[in-house]
Design goal:
alpha+beta, eight-stranded mixed sheet, binds (S)-Methylmalonyl-Coenzyme A
Length: about 150
């Protein structure tokens, strides 16, 4: 079901400062900055490596909460800054959601939502994935290859 690691989502208090850190220390490049009101975040995607064989790139996704009552705001209040979730590439989000549900995992999202860089996304509950908030990501490229 999972084809690749699309991104690692990292919760931070100050997006601009964290972007500067990842650029200057690790030499990463910001490819997009977005505000996602539905998810309650301001976020930056930084490309890590060019995927082999024309596959999608992998990203570090830096997430600053839009407020204390958002998922990332609550996460930082409880645990501090750090890894918030792992996003995995899938070829067919609807089929992957159905397979996850059939395996007994709770879907946080009953239907696909809008993610970074034009992706369609759905979250699986961390309580069913060993404490890891897990995101299924059908990238815009995957959607072009598999328009459904
Ligand atoms: C909360 N918990 C987590 C967690 N957030 N465990 C692992 N990783 C996380 N990120 C745990 C808490 O420690 C707690 O465990 C339990 O879940 C309930 O926590 P809560 O603070 O009361 O939070 P809830 O229940 O209101 O919500 C948790 C839940 C929520 C995961 C359902 O955060 C959610 O719906 N997340 C999905 C959406 C999201 O995270 N959006 C932001 C990224 P205990 O054991 O103490 O009960 S948006 C994004 O990333 C987009 C832009 C993209 O990728 O394109």
């Amino acid at each position: 079901m999972l084809t690749r690691i699309d991104h690692v989502g990292i919760a931070c208090r100050d997006l601009a400062a964290k972007v500067e850190f990842y650029e200057s220390v690790f030499g990463l490049t910001v490819v997009s900055m977005e505000v996602n009101e539905e998810q309650g975040v301001k976020e930056a995607m930084l490309a890590v490596a060019q995927g082999a064989h024309g596959q999608d790139v992998s990203y570090v996704q830096l997430l600053e909460p839009l407020g204390p009552e958002t998922p990332v705001g609550k996460f930082i209040a409880r645990r501090g800054e750090g890894v918030h979730h792992v996003g995995y590439g899938v070829a067919d989000l609807a089929a992957s959601m159905a397979a996850a549900e059939a395996a007994g995992l709770r879907l946080i999202d009953a239907r696909p939502r809008h993610g970074s860089l034009g992706a369609s996304i759905a979250f699986l509950h961390p309580g069913d994935v060993g404490g890891v908030l897990t995101e299924l990501v059908q990238s815009a490229r995957a959607t072009r290859a598999n328009p459904g």
